[in-house]
Each structure stands twice: as structure tokens, then as C-alpha cells.
Specification:
420 residues, alpha/beta, four-stranded mixed sheet, 31% helix, binds uridine-diphosphate-N-acetylglucosamine, binds phosphoenolpyruvate, MurA_subfamily, cell wall biogenesis/degradation
Length: 420
């Protein structure tokens, strides 16, 4: 397993080009299963999760061809299997996103139950409930969700008890090919939902309300391939901006969307950062030690849970005491004990991390436990007074394209140590 070796102390300076959004690219690649003709997708980030998705689509029988590093054509005209195996689902929970498309187009899908995950239990009951309302028969057999329906799914009125991003995406994709109209209430409003809806509409779907809490989907009988560009990754952008703020640097993120980051940018300004934005760029300058900021995660447009760990790192070196409260996942503080090992003054009370900023962190050998926890440890390493080793970085490779190359280009001293 690979590790990162980081020697901190340099303020990050320069420009970084942001990749396409993992959490938009994943459902959009899965949406290719709905199409009878090939779809070309650009601005696809090259990450382990994308490789897993491509493997999954290929196993189902789709033909996948990379035209360029970030451009892929998926031809799902011939699908010969409708089963997503445990081996793939356990490495990437988003594999559940094949359920809606396979069921809608072929009337049959088998997907391994994902099981628990480092950040929480993450059930999928809302996906199943919504599909059942559309007429599917669903049972669990030997650890697999087995879903069937005769003919097309039927449009339904669905109220989601909890706001779920992939739940909304799965139901939206299923409803796109259903007979009749589906209304999803209490839908997720994340920008990635809007991106998926835009892609589906370009393929011929009739979806309105994306970005609000009510989606209306008038089902159509077929969808066709298109050429679609994935939105920029707002979480990668936020991660580089926090790294710039923590190291008191100056970083311009290119190829991004400031409009998708309101809550994060406002917290960075509260922490003392100067932020200038253009149509597709954000520049952050930090001229002093950050001020600690209280953060509370909640569904979009509130502060994203995927930026929580990075802000804990900001708070542990900031001036003052702050609370960081996690309301989405019940166990998303695995970075806290690792940060304590680097000298952070942080304690957990229920779903809140209480931090009092320290003047400097010490380097240590720390272990990444999930994707964003890994990012928080890398950022901590960038300001530590002695070298840091972050182990198990396969987590970070799931969601960041060449993070060490991008950080090196900004002046960071970070190298990958190849493991066995
Ligand atoms: C691939 C992808 O896009 N992943 C994102 C997606 O994950 P994901 O879509 O898995 O997260 P959800 O939005 O579904 O989870 C939100 C909450 O709803 C609960 N829940 C969800 C589904 C369900 O059927 N029942 C249920 O109770 C979850 O346990 C969690 O407490 O949104 C999360 C919340 O913004 C992000 O952290 C992830 O990065
Ligand atoms: C939690 C995340 O991803 P996933 O839902 O794929 O685990 C994330 O992107 O931070």
C-alpha cells in the first residue's frame, strides 16, 4: 500500500487546475446504461473510483473506450449481465447506482448490498422504497438486492424521508425511463444532482426541478447517447483552498465553479481568507493565521460533509476555539485521533469536534481511514513542523486525481512512497 511523505512548512502558491467532479462523473457514467447508443463523457477525473466504475460497466457488457485521459465513450447498447458483484461494490459504494438504470432498461438488476462503511452504516432503504413505489419487486438474496419488474417501471409519487444524494440519483435515473410521471419530494439539491439531470435531459429525458427539493420526471421510452461534460469538482476545489488557507498561501483554482461553493467560501472568508472569484476560477490569499470557525454539515446548500475533515484541520491550527458538527454521517471523525497524534487539541462530544488551535503541529506517521479524512491528514502534514507519513492513501486515490503532483506544483514537499 502506498504512503505519502510530507515535509511541511511551505505556503502553497500558484495555480491548480481542478478535475471533473467524482460525485457527478460516477452517476453520469452509470446513466450510460440507460442509453441505447454510445455516450461520450468529457472532463472525467482519472481516479480509482472511475476505474472501478469502468470495470463494473465492462462486466455488465458495456464497451468502454478512452479517447483521451479524461474523455470516455460508453456503449451500453448490448448488456449481457445485470449483476454488480460484492468485489466491486465493497470497494465503491456508488456501485449501487447501477440499480435504477438496469431495472428501468432491462427489468432486472442484482446488486450486492454494500454493508457498512468507515464513515457510517449508510443504508440504502430509500433507494429500494422508491423503486418499489415504481412497481419493482425487490428482495434480498444471499447478500444481494434482487430487483425485477414486468415491462416498464411506473411513474410514482415519492417522498424521501431523508435527503439522499445517490438515492435521488438512482430514482431519477429509473424514473427517466418509466411509464408516466414521477415526483420526488425532499430530493437532494446538490450541484451533482443538477449535473446528472442536465446530462439525462441532453439524452432525451424530461426532468424539471433539479436543484430544488422537488423533482418532476416525465418518463420517456428511450434515451440516446450524447456528448456531455462533467461539472468541476467542488470538493477538490475546497480541499485546495483549505490547504492554501492553512499554509497561509495564495492559490488560484482554475476550471471550477464558485457558485457551487457558497457555504465553503463564506467559512473561508470568516476564517480570514481573501477570496476573489471569476466565472470559472477562485483565488484565495491568506496573510495571517486563520481564525477558528464553527461548522455544521447539512445537505446542500448548507456546508458539505465532504469538507468537514478539511475544516477540522483548519481549526486545529487556527486562532481560537471552534465546534465542527457532523449531522450527515454518524462516524465521520476518524481523522480526529490521527490529528491528536500530530499534537492537535481536539476532543469529540457526540457529533461535534471541539478544537482549540495550536501554534504548530508535529509530524507523525498517521493512517488514512476514508477519502476526506486522508485529505485532512495531508493538509495537516503541509503545516507540521517535522515530516509526516500518511499511510493507506488508496483512500485518497479514490477521489483525487494526482493530488501529490498538483500539490508539488504549488510548492509542497510531498512524495509518494510505493508500497507492496
Ligand atoms: C458518490 C456520492 O455522491 N457520494 C456522496 C453522497 O453519498 P450518499 O449518496 O451515499 O449519501 P446520502 O446522501 O445517501 O446519505 C445521507 C444520509 O442519508 C442516509 N440514508 C441514505 C440513503 C438511504 O437509503 N437511507 C439513509 O438513511 C445516510 O445514512 C446518511 O446519513 O452524498 C454524501 C452526502 O452529501 C456525500 O458525503 C458523498 O460523498
Ligand atoms: C464519502 C465520499 O464518497 P463515497 O460516497 O463514494 O464514499 C466522498 O466523496 O467524500
Amino acid at each position: 500500500m502506498d504512503s505519502f511523505k510530507i515535509t511541511g512548512g511551505q505556503p502553497l502558491k500558484g495555480e491548480v487546475t481542478i478535475s471533473g467532479a467524482k460525485n457527478a462523473a460516477l452517476p453520469i457514467l452509470m446513466a450510460a446504461l440507460l442509453s441505447e447508443t454510445p455516450i461520450t463523457i468529457t472532463n472525467v477525473p482519472r481516479l480509482n473510483d472511475i476505474d472501478t466504475t469502468v470495470k463494473l460497466l465492462s462486466q455488465l457488457g458495456a464497451k468502454v473506450e478512452w479517447l483521451d485521459i479524461n474523455e470516455v465513450v460508453i456503449d451500453a447498447s448490448q448488456i449481457d449481465h445485470c449483476r454488480a458483484s460484492y468485489e466491486l461494490v465493497k470497494t465503491m459504494r456508488a456501485s449501487i447506482l447501477v440499480l435504477g438504470p438496469l431495472l428501468a432498461r432491462f427489468g432486472h438488476a442484482e446488486v450486492s448490498l454494500p454493508g457498512g462503511c468507515a464513515i457510517g452504516a449508510r443504508p440504502i432503504d430509500l433507494h429500494i422504497h422508491g423503486l418499489k413505489l415504481m412497481g419493482a419487486e425487490i428482495e434480498v438474496d444471499n447478500g444481494y438486492i434482487v430487483a425485477r419488474n414486468q415491462g416498464r417501471l411506473t411513474g410514482a409519487s415519492i417522498f424521501m424521508d431523508t435527503v439522499s444524494v445517490t438515492g435521488t440519483e438512482n430514482l431519477m435515473m429509473a424514473a427517466a425511463l418509466a411509464e408516466g410521471t414521477t415526483v420526488i419530494e425532499n430530493a437532494a439539491r446538490e450541484p451533482e444532482i443538477v449535473d446528472l439531470a442536465n446530462c439525462l435531459n441532453a439524452m432525451g429525458a424530461k426532468i424539471s426541478g433539479a436543484g430544488t427539493d422537488t423533482l418532476t420526471i416525465a418518463g420517456v421510452s428511450r434515451l440516446q447517447g450524447e456528448h456531455y461534460r462533467v461539472m468541476p469538482d467542488r470538493i477538490e476545489t475546497g480541499t485546495f483552498l483549505v490547504a492554501a488557507a492553512v499554509t497561509q498561501g495564495q492559490v488560484k483554482c482554475l476550471n471550477t465553479d464558485p457558485g457551487a461553493l457558497d457555504a465553503v467560501l463564506s467559512k473561508l472568508q470568516e476564517a480570514g481568507a481573501e477570496i476573489v472569484t471569476g466565472e470559472d476560477w477562485i483565488e484565495l490569499s491568506m496573510h495571517k493565521r486563520p481564525t477558528a470557525v464553527n461548522v455544521r454539515t447539512a445537505p446542500h446548500p448548507a456546508f458539505p460533509t465532504d469538507m468537514q475533515a478539511q475544516f477540522v484541520t483548519l481549526n486545529i491550527i487556527a486562532e481560537g476555539t471552534a465546534t465542527t458538527t457532523e449531522t450527515i454521517f454518524e462516524n465521520r471523525f476518524m481523522h480526529v485521533p490521527e490529528l491528536q497524534r500530530m499534537g492537535a487539541d481536539v476532543r469529540l462530544e457526540g457529533n461535534t469536534a471541539i478544537t482549540t488551535g495550536v501554534d504548530s503541529l508535529q509530524g507523525a506517521q498517521v493512517m488514512a481511514t476514508d477519502l476526506r479524512a486522508s485529505a485532512s491528514l495531508v493538509i495537516a502534514g503541509l503545516v507540521a513542523s517535522s515530516p509526516t507519513q500518511v499511510d493507506r492513501i488508496y483512500h485518497i486515490d479514490r477521489g483525487y486525481q494526482h493530488i501529490e503532483d498538483k500539490l508539488q506544483a504549488l510548492g509542497a514537499d510531498i512524495t509518494r512512497i510505493k508500497g507492496s
